[in-house]
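Please check this one:

***
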Amino acid sequence: MKVAVVILNWNGKDLLERFLPSVVKFSSEATVYIADNASTDNSVAFVSEFFSTVKIIQNKENGGYAKGYNDALKNLSEDIFILLNSDVEVTENWLQPVVSEFEKDSSVVAAQPKILDYKNKEYFEYAGAAGGFIDKYGYPYCRGRIFNTLEKDMGQYDDVSQIFWASGACLFVKAEAFWQAGALDEDYFAHQEEIDLCWRLQSKGGKIVYVGASKVYHVGGATLAALNPKKTFYNFRNSLLNLLKNTVGTKAFTALLARMLLDGVAAFQFLIQDKPKHFFAILKAHLSFYALLPKFLRKRKVFSSTLKYYTLKSIVFQYFINNKKKFNRL
C-alpha cells in the first residue's frame, strides 16, 4: 500500500528543524509532505532548501487542523494518509507494523501507534497514549492516560487492540474510507475532530486499532499549550458537538444535558482554582455550541448512528469518586 506522511505546518520552522529529520530518516517507504497553512515565517523556504525529498503542499489560508488537512489531502493518491503533528519524533520501523494491520485486515480503516512523551520518554503522552475511548457523556480517555494521570510505559500496552478513536497527533487512515466518511469536519477547527471522524468511520463498519509495536514521541502543546484557554474552549465545545452530531435517539439528549451540567461544575472548579480565563472559555464554548446547534442538528440527520460508542458510563465518576486512575483498573 502506498503511504503519505502529511505534516501540517503553520509558522513552525523551529519544530520542523527539530522533528522533520527523524521523519525523513525513518520513512523511506512513504512520501513525506509538508502541508503549509499559509505560514508567514520562512518554514517553507527552510524545507525546500534542506529537505529536497519532501513535497510541499501550499494551502491558501490557515484553516486549522481540519480544513488544513482536508485541503492538503484532496489531491493525494496514496492508499494510506498519516496525519502527523509537526512536534512528533518518529522512530525506526514506525510505519510497517501499522501498515501491516491495514494489509492483514481490510476492515481496519484507521490506526495509531504508541504515543510517548517526548519530554519524559518513559511515560505515555496525553494526546492519544495507547489508544482512545469516550464515556457516555463524551469525555475522552486513553489506555495509558486518564485526565491528567499519565502511566509509565512498562510494556503493558505492547499489543494490537481495537479502540474507539485514534489520536490526531499521529493518525493513520485509509484514504478511501476517509473520503467516504466525509473527511474532517471543518466546523471543529481544532481538537477532537479525530474523535468525530473515527466515530463516523466505525458507523460505516470500519475498525480502529492501536499498534504497540510502532512508537513515536510527541511534545504535546507545542502548537497550543495545555493550559491555553483556547484549548479548553475547543475541547469543551467539540465534545458537545460530537454527542449532538453522532448519537441517535432521545437518550442522547439526556446524555448531552448531563454533560452540559458537568461542564458547569468544571467551570466553577476553574473559578475556585483562580483560573477565570478557563471559566470564561467554557462559557464561550457553550455559547458557540448554541450558535452551531441548527447546523449540527442538520448534520445529525446525516451522521447519527446506533453505534455503541461507550463501554463506560462515566469516566468522571470512576476517576474522581472511585479513584481509578489507570485504564486497567476501570
The radius of gyration is 19 Å. Residues 229-310 form one domain. The first strand starts at residue 3 and ends at 9. The chain is about 40% helix and 20% strand.
